[in-house]
Amino acid sequence: MPPTLDPGANAPGATDPARIRNFGIIAHIDHGKSTLADRMLQLTGVVDPRQMRAQYLDRMDIERERGITIKSQAVRMPWTIREGDRAGEAAVLNMIDTPGHVDFTYEVSRSLAACEGAILLVDAAQGIEAQTLANLYLALENDLRIIPVLNKIDLPAAQPEKYAEELAHLIGGDPADCIRVSGKTGEGVPYLLDEIVRQFVPPTGEADSPARAMIFDSVYDVYRGVVTYVRVVDGRISARDRIKMMSTGAVHELLEIGVISPEMVKAEALGVGEVGYLITGVKDVRQSRVGDTVTINGNPAKEALGGYKDPKPMVYSGLYPIDGSDYPNLREALDKLKLNDAALDYEPETSGALGFGFRCGFLGLLHLEIIRERLEREYNLDLISTAPNVVYRAITEDGQEIVVTNPSEYPTGKIAEVYEPVVRATVLTPNDYVGAVMELCQGRRGNLLGMDYLSADRVELRYTLPLAEIIFDFFDQLKSRTKGYASLDYEPSGEQASDLVKVDILLHGEPVDAFSAIVHKDKAYNYGTSIAAKLRNLIPRQQFEVPIQAAIGSRVIARETIRAIRKDVLAKCYGGDISRKRKLLEKQKEGKKRMKMVGRVEVPQEAFIAALSSDSGDAKAAGKK
Ligand SMILES: Nc1nc2c(ncn2[C@@H]2O[C@H](COP(=O)(O)OP(=O)(O)OP(=O)(O)O)[C@@H](O)[C@H]2O)c(=O)[nH]1
Questions:
Q1: Is the pTM higher than 0.90?
Q2: Could you say which residues bind GTP here (predicted)?
């Protein structure tokens, strides 16, 4: 049975802003955000205990399986203070669930911009991790009040005293002010809800000004089209308004407006400080973008709320169907996924080695991995992805600027300067591994910005690093060098000029496009030798000698050779009967169909796939801690 919302003073559209508390929960992955959110839904009576399922708010299958939150959601919950001198004070809590992973930092920052307060949730058995810090900085940038909370106090390994010290040291204040809870058993959660009403401030806004609402999430629903989540800042949006998106000027009819509690509940209007959803019938999330400001067409606001950014892909990779006849299906699947993902970018591309496919842009490696997994799982496609690369900006000597999202577009002429994206990375590690982490970062062209002791045995290291150095196996390396104890977070931090070169891999003198890469000059040799060695083992011997070369322009930097073999399928048939010979030749022809020709060399497609797939796989690891 859907919950019925109070029709009185607390009804959506009529809620006194002084009663509203908008807050988010920020935490490192797996510190228990979704579990705590579930417990709150239950304690506030929004979800019937019998309907409760784990991670109620994580709706997508992939989210639930991976246990990570990709899309944020907002839930409205009534709460009345239970204890203390303000007992009996009724409030409306809007809990805005935020994604935790670095790829979705922009979404986190928009969700937080819709809040006045944030719960800083830390696992009492683990302490502060890199994403705790990164998200805390985002919350502080948005001027949010912070309530420090230690979770999982039911665990035997929990050390709440120790980590309360650490938290207090980080955000200032008294360790005793850290609230201790268990999302699992519910212990401490009612007290936390009381404190949310007591400590967080209500929203402020101009009730009589033209309406302005910020979009903090936008999801595509097969039945309802795009559902847009907004936080009203000024004025009021009612069900009969025509709304206008301030970044594009597009005007839409409102079909429905309401709040989530925890399913969609229609409302008459949303007023100052309220959080809810809009449905306009548009079919594409790009028309309703996160960060944009919604106003009313008849009485538009003059200025948009700040902070809107176009989503910009950071990492590109080619996606190819293993079976070439799946190409139209892949196109259709990408078209559909894009409806739900404003950051996904793709265009057709052809590769000599892999056939027809798409060059796709992603926010980061986890984003790539999620899209690929959804394509394979929901659309039944078998895919191969080329090694991911970042976006380079090359300036030629005659002053032309070329943006390179694919190594094959790298200009061949004289280049004055090449810029690559850099990130600001935060690594948290136990004291013992500081040396190992530094060595790794230095090896990846990192630049140490600073180092702080969070407690006697935990260190925060801040580096700038080229994004390209992080997207391969950085995370795996970090984990293995620190026995799994270090955590990593990073955010884009502009670009830098670097000494970069394009390495081509040539097979019998012909370049194989799928293996061209842009790498730092000092790493070109390593890249060249490793790919050449890999291909030598994967490509079967031919009837002539095949050199595999790695080259920068016309200069060869590495070489391997596949020795010649004469494969005579008829060798076994001395004399014998002609029909048997014909049969063997037919069979050989069949086998050849699966071969790709690179110049004169026959290469089984599986060889390309094997050579490419051993480079990926890091995103999976990066998805979890
Ligand atoms: N013992 C114990 N386990 C908990 C508690 N809260 C969460 N967990 C467990 O910790 C794991 C991670 O919890 P989630 O709620 O999925 O964590 P999350 O922070 O939402 O993770 P992301 O959505 O990936 O960011 C799950 O296995 C939970 O069952 C708690 O209070 N006590």
A1: no
A2: 30-35, 151-154
